[in-house]
Amino acid sequence: MGHQISPPLPLTANFPLLQRSSCFLDHLVFLSSPIKHRSIYSSPRRSSLSYHKPSCHRIEKNARLQRARVSFFQSTKSDGFENNLKQELLETIAPLDRGADATLEQQERVDQIARKLEAVNKVNEPLKSELLNGKWELLYTTSQSILQTKRPKILRANGKIYQAINVDTLRAQNMETWPFFNQATANLVPLNARRVAVKFDAFKVLGLIPIRARGSGRGQLEITYLDEELRISRGNEGNLFILRMVDRMYRVPL
């Protein structure tokens, strides 16, 4: 009677060829060549190929390198998205004469882009950041007290408008240029890490005539986006302010 040869065991999940190692999942080894079955009478031969299992240290090192690569590319992608938003915002507000010529639709569009930038803001505590220090140029606002769109254009502030802040002294200064050169200085009282109460203490008309404030000049300001070159703020009445850094060394008078 001839010998019966048992069929090869099936390669299924019930036959665990691969097991977990003590440190990490072992490398999965896929054999591309078909399995050859030898006769039970054939002499066993040692394989000329050997597989060296990588050490736990090497596996973990490779995993750390992979995580670092993923983190780097995610950061680069995020920075690119943020820069594109900034460019889109600046291009949108450029023809709007600081907001004076903006229609309601354009105001809504600017607000939408600003909110997207605010959502990716990396400076969570701007009142503690050195990035806030210096003189900022006002590029866009919805504040009618600044735009004065109901006045004839010749009676508005047609030159550049600046706002300076020093976080170490908690002082702020608003400065108009042509044609009035009005100025105002204020103390900042932090309400949280992003919002301050603004208490004006002095005004200067035509850049020459000083007027002491009598407690009427008050408001609040929240810094919602901040980086090296751009700042977005919102007032307590819902007004939007977009500013660009022009002089980081400027100091507000005490």
From TrEMBL:
Residues 84-243 form the Plastid lipid-associated protein/fibrillin conserved domain. Keywords: Plastid, Transit peptide. InterPro entries: PAP, PAP/fibrillin_dom. Pfam families: PAP_fibrillin (PF04755). Its main location: plastid. It comes from the Eukaryota. It is found in: Plastid. One of its GO terms (cellular component) is plastid. This is Plastid lipid-associated protein/fibrillin conserved domain-containing protein. The keyword Plastid applies. PANTHER family: PLASTID-LIPID-ASSOCIATED PROTEIN 4, CHLOROPLASTIC-RELATED (PTHR31906).
